[in-house]
Amino acid sequence: MDINTIIARRVRDLRDQQKLSLNALAKRSGVSRSNISLIERGESSPTAAALDKLAVGLGVTLASLFEDSAPAAAAAPVSRLAEQVCWTDPASGYMRRNLSPGLPSPLQLVEVEFPAGQTVRYDSFHRDVDIQQQVWIIAGQMHLSVGEQTWDLQTGDCLSMALDKPITFHNPGKIAARYLVALCK
């Protein structure tokens, strides 16, 4: 299934489960009603920033927007590489792969490949749920800013943070960086 179709179905299902109108989700997320409508119809390839705002508005993690909406009873405890959902941010070119199986769990794992010289900012941090995140650099380097604090991370470094402040990911290197994100709510 196409990634934009998965995202479309998931956003629409989460909005329906919460009985939110397009206008209500637009107000909660800061994403325009028309953009949400395009995303839900699979006619838009949303940016990471737009998806993060929708995740905040829906009270879920960004990674959960890439999950299949199929009933959990059908989910297997193993997530096979060939079945893992990959998505590429159209603005920065960063690629994220959901590693976790579709079973309900407070922990989600995501692998990211982040192009050299690129930056992504997540300004949506007013969440209804507490989410903790750790970023472990597998290869390359990243500058991560959380609020006013910045860390220069190299291969092997791991940063733990709460998703309660604006976060900026920047790859200052000349090669793509690879890292693992572990999210827990």
From TrEMBL:
CDD domains cross-referenced by the UniProt entry: cupin_XRE_C, HTH_XRE
Domain HTH cro/C1-type: 11-65
Coiled-coil annotated residue ranges, if any: none
Keyword Manganese: no
UniProt keyword terms in alphabetical order: DNA-binding
PROSITE patterns: HTH_CROC1 (PS50943)
SMART domains: HTH_XRE
The protein's name in its UniProt record: Helix-turn-helix transcriptional regulator
Source organism (scientific name): Undibacterium hunanense
